[in-house]
Amino acid sequence: MKFFMAEFIGTMLLILLGDGVVAGVLLRRSKAENSGWIVITTGWAMAVAMGVYAVGRISGAHLNPAITIGYAAVGRFSWVEVPPYIGGQFLGAFVGAVLVWLVYYAHWSETPEKASKLLIFSTVPAIRHKPSNLVAEIVGTFVLVFGCLALGANNAPSQSGLTPLLVGFLVWAIGLSLGGPTGYAINPARDLAPRIAHALLPIPGKGTSDWGYAWVPIIGPLVGGVLGAAVYTKLF
Question: What domains does the chain contain, in order, with CATH numbers?
Answer without folding.
Answer: 2-235 (1.20.1080.10)
